[in-house]
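2024-03-11 09:14:02 DEBUG pipeline.ingest accepted 1 chain
2024-03-11 09:14:02 DEBUG pipeline.ingest length=630
2024-03-11 09:14:03 DEBUG pipeline.predict start
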Amino acid sequence: MLNKPQLLRRLLALCGLLLLCSGVALSQLFQLQILSGEKYVRRSAEFLTTTSTVSAARGEILDRYGRPLVTNNTGFSLVLIYSSFWDGNDKRFDTLLDLTHRIQTKQNAAKAAAATDTSSDTSADAADSTDTSSDTPTDTAQAVSADTAAIPSINDRLPITQSAPFTYNSASLTELSGYMKDSAKSLGLDAVTAAVDAAKQASETDPKTDENGSIIDQAAQVDATKLVSPTEFINAMRAYMEKNLGMPADLSLSDARTMVGIYYSMRTVGFSNQATYTLADNVPMDLIAYIKEHSADFQGIEIQSEAVRQYDTATAAHLLGTIGSLTSDEWNSDKNGGPYKDKTGYQMSDLIGKSGLESALESYLHGTAGSRTVETDLGGSAIAEQTTATAPKPGDNVITTIDLDLQEVAEKSLESNLSAYGKGGAAVALDPNTGEVLAMASYPTYDLANYNKNYASIQADSRHPEVNRATSGVYPPGSTFKMVTAIAGLEEGIISGDTYVTCAGTYEYGGQTFRCNNHDTPMTLNVTDALKYSCNTFFYTVGQKLTGEHLEQWTKKFGLGTATGIEVGEATGQAAGPTYREQQRKADPAIREWQGGDDLNAAIGQSDNGFTPLQLANYVSAIVNGGTLY
């Protein structure tokens, strides 16, 4: 049996051992948290997993026979991982400069090659103009699209020109204005800060309401781009990035503009541990190979495959439409189908449809995005990657009612007939038995494959090639409208097939002389002859008896002055009559009231009548098919 001294010695030994273990543990905690705390925090951040959305390929758009209009090519993009590229990486700007210089070199080489190829093709066409049977529009479009897809692009969302003297681009200025207001104090934009503070004060002391009675946020209406010049913004961003982010202070103005644009883009797409940033698209294989060979110099940079839009026809630009990056308005509000932040599978860096079918059918074409989780080691190399069970699902293909051959003929015809006159026009072909749009052409048009590259010239063209005149152009219908007057007169019992009117070239009403110059000699005509010779006098007579009130009702029955419901957007136009005239007078009391002379002018398609070419084609289809308006 152990005596008391022995027990005491053992207890002391046990206490000493416990104290020793505690000391070792405390020393290790001191080493980890105090002496090396910053190192291990940074290291743990570098081991953070990043979960990002994997965008799905957009669906293809085909004509009625399955011929491709818009498809996809496989390209490659450079994607930055926040934890390993940006956070704690002292060489991030050196890496960005190296990459952007390499990409810009590739851009210049690709553009020069494309220009050389275009010049050679033009010379060959001129030398062999007698044999063009193999040079179809589709072949040409494929060549252009392939050239464009081969040109790498840096994802720069900053709407300021790339070189000095800097100017604002028209796109995404609302997004830039919001960024300026949010960052005004940190960037030292005193004029913006003062304007926003004044607007907030005005909202409190002198609140204003909109037409619905809702209070207007006057600070939100401040346009910061009117208060800060592009050069001032570049300089402010440059100073902030040099002071707070470690950007080198000796950069050239061109390099500084590039870095500012990239950082602005990172901020607007929410670059973080939860969202990656795509630095560049359409990256050529030789640059990809270089990055892979020197992976140690490019930590936090991933190479991902992507679907790149390919345009297989040079026609139907207005129908097919454009795609582009999400804006903050689309992300946060209901603009253009938003808010996209609430939709599954979207992130701020996504491309969406901006116009035409690309926009109207975005929910079908976009597809279902997947997600990917990546864990990186200290060198930025992926050590674990897992794709969720729901892999990216490509968007649905869309089969349109368009006949590609007919569409090409329509656009060629418009160009050959209008190009010499500097005017625009439209052509629409419908199947009257179904209402299907077989062709819808608008002139002048533009090349979708080079839309971004040619954006400035398209916007500067006084003929407005971006407007789809077939659906958004509102024009007086003229004599094409006389069939409405004829049908209204017959249906209302004002005339019959045996009603004859003698036309001597003039029609007297209310002390005014209305003229008919559509036939050389006096004629006595019934409704069939009146349509054949487009006799104004006959329809003046019908219009006077019918009155504008009844005529506008028949006009709307044929869908004129009302929306057709086509998916790609449209103007409604207006039907002439007392109703529309009264609407005008409410906006401008100086406009005179509807009078009897207006009945006559409206009957021959003049007065206030204004319709789209699509409405006119649809109304004629209703006559042809026996009365069904699609």
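2024-03-11 09:14:41 DEBUG pipeline.report The first helix runs from residue 4 to 35.
2024-03-11 09:14:41 DEBUG pipeline.predict end
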